[in-house]
What we know:
Blueprint: H1 5-8, H2 16-39, E1 45-48, E2 59-63, H3 70-89, H4 94-121
Antiparallel strand pairs: 1-2
Amino acid sequence: MNPFTWIKNQSLFSDRRAVILLIVSFVALIFLVVYSIASIETREFKIPIRYSGYREGNLSNRGEWFSLLALPLFALVSFGFNAALSLKVHRMRPELSHVLLGLNLVVAVFIFLVSKALFDLL
C-alpha cells in the first residue's frame, strides 16, 4: 500500500485556490530558506543598541551566526503545521483551510522582512 494515497484522496487538491496558495507558500518558503542560508556569514553578529555600559560602545554582541537559522526554521515549522492542519480541516471548513494557507504567506513575508533587516545590519 502506498503511504501517500491518503494525500491523493484529500479534497484539498481538487480546490484550485487551495492548491495555488499551497504552491505559492512553498515557493516563498524555499526562497526564504535559500536567501537566509546565502546571506548568513559565519561570524558573530553585532546589533546596534541605544545604551552604552561600562567599556561598551554602541555595538553589542547578541549571538552566534547559527542562531540566525532560527528564522527560516520557524518558517519551515509554521509551513508544515499549517499545511497539515489545512489538509485536516479542508473537508469540514474550506474557508478556514484557505486562511491557514494564506497565513503561511504572511509568516513567510514577515520572516523575510525581519531576516533582511538583520542581514543588512551584519
